[in-house]
């Protein structure tokens, strides 16, 4: 009976070194989150004494119970959620509508090279912070959700990524659609968008994370604290335990609560939405980046 040969490669020292390096990088990414969770679940005395590293000391839910009573936190959370929905939706729409015609060749879209030059120019050069603020102010968008959405409505990097992905699609798809009587809109909605899901999911993830994590625009464009998005609210946290409570139970809870624990709990809660969204888009991420960034 003939033996079946198996081609197995022996692991080398380089393989072990690379595996060790990847494990260390993974631990370096997880460690801050783990420490934040441990601090949020630890007792005040342990946190203030610097005894908490990666395991909660004197486990308690006081920080999270305090968050449930914080109306400002939930108001900021709602502002960020509204910003993500509007911002990511508008960016998706404008990115597709701009990338689709630019994916055509110069023969199909006359003046394409002029538009490309203009787009690349805006990506490399900006007017500066003060002109940007003055434009937003002159449009009357200060202290409104649109100030957080409209100024970044056309992310040029995302447009180029989707454009290159569409340009790499087989020409036979477009030719067959034209033969069947499809017009430009039908071609976009029924063929290009379904086929370009990896690239579109990737840029959507970029948009969601960028809008959710940004605190600077809220700090500059919002003068009223009730209009702050969540990250701006978190950034503004200093020692803010409300000691004006009249309820004895709440005073007792505040006495047991460290500001470090409370802030750590709020930071961890802000991470949860991204952690929930990311796994659903992860499978498109590498594919969309690879095919959308190689060619022009």
Brief overview:
The protein is an all-alpha fold.
Descriptive labels:
MetI-like_sf, single chain, mainly alpha, transport, MetI-like fold, 68% helix, 296 residues, transmembrane helix, transmembrane, 14 helices
Helix and strand topology:
Elements: H1 13-40, H2 44-48, H3 62-68, H4 71-102, H5 112-124, H6 129-138, H7 156-167, H8 171-179, H9 184-195, H10 197-213, H11 216-221, H12 230-235, H13 248-255, H14 259-293
What does the model show?
The chain has 296 residues and is mostly helical. It is built from 14 helices and no strands. Helix 3 packs across helix 14, helix 4 runs antiparallel to helix 10 (197-213) and helix 10 (197-213) packs antiparallel against helix 14.
CATH top-level class: Mainly Alpha
Radius of gyration: 25 Å
How many distinct folded domains?
Answer: 1
What overall form do the CA principal axes indicate?
globular
The span between the termini is 55 Å
Q: Would you identify the regions where 5 or more consecutive residues have pLDDT less than 50?
A: 238-251, 292-296
Encode the helix/strand succession as letters. Answer: HHHHHHHHHHHHHH
Number of strands: 0
Largest sheet: none
Please indicate the percent range of residues in DSSP E strands (runs of 2 or more): under 5%
Number of helices, where a helix is a run of at least 4 consecutive DSSP H or I residues:
14
Classify the secondary structure makeup into a structural class: mainly alpha
Instruction: Output the CATH topology.
Output: MetI-like fold
Give the helix proportion (percent range): 55-70%
Give the integer mean of the pLDDT values: 80
Name the CATH superfamily assignment: MetI-like
Known CATH architecture: Orthogonal Bundle
Keywords: Cell membrane, Membrane, Sugar transport, Transmembrane, Transmembrane helix, Transport
Domain ABC transmembrane type-1: 77-281
Protein name: Multiple sugar transport system permease protein/putative aldouronate transport system permease protein
Family: Belongs to the binding-protein-dependent transport system permease family.
């Amino acid at each position: 009976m003939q033996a079946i040969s198996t081609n197995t490669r022996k692991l080398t020292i380089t393989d072990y070194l690379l595996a060790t390096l990847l494990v260390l990088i993974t631990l370096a990414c997880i460690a801050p989150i783990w420490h934040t969770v441990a601090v949020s679940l630890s007792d005040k005395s342990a946190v203030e004494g610097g005894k908490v590293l990666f395991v909660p000391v004197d486990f308690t839910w006081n920080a999270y119970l305090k968050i449930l009573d914080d109306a400002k936190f939930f108001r900021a959370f709602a502002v960020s959620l509204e910003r993500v929905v509007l911002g990511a939706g508008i960016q998706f729409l404008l990115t597709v509508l701009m990338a689709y015609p630019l994916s055509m060749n110069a023969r199909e879209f006359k003046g394409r090279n002029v538009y490309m030059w203009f787009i690349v120019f805006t990506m490399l050069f900006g007017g500066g912070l003060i002109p940007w603020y003055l434009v937003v102010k002159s449009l009357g968008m200060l202290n409104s959700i649109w100030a957080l959405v409209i100024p970044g409505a056309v992310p040029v990097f995302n447009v180029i990524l989707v454009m290159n992905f569409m340009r790499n699609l087989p020409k036979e798809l477009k030719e067959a659609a034209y033969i069947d009587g499809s017009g430009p809109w039908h071609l976009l909605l029924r063929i290009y968008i379904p086929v370009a899901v990896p690239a579109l999911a990737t840029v959507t993830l970029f948009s969601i994370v960028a809008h959710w994590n940004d605190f600077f625009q809220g700090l500059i464009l919002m003068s009223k604290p009730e209009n702050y998005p969540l990250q701006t609210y978190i950034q503004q946290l200093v020692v803010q335990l409300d000691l004006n409570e009249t309820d004895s139970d709440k005073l007792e809870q505040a006495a047991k609560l460290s500001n470090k624990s409370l802030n750590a709990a709020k930071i961890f809660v802000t991470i949860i939405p991204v952690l929930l969204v990311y796994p659903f888009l992860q499978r498109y991420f590498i594919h969309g980046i690879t095919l959308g960034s190689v060619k022009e």
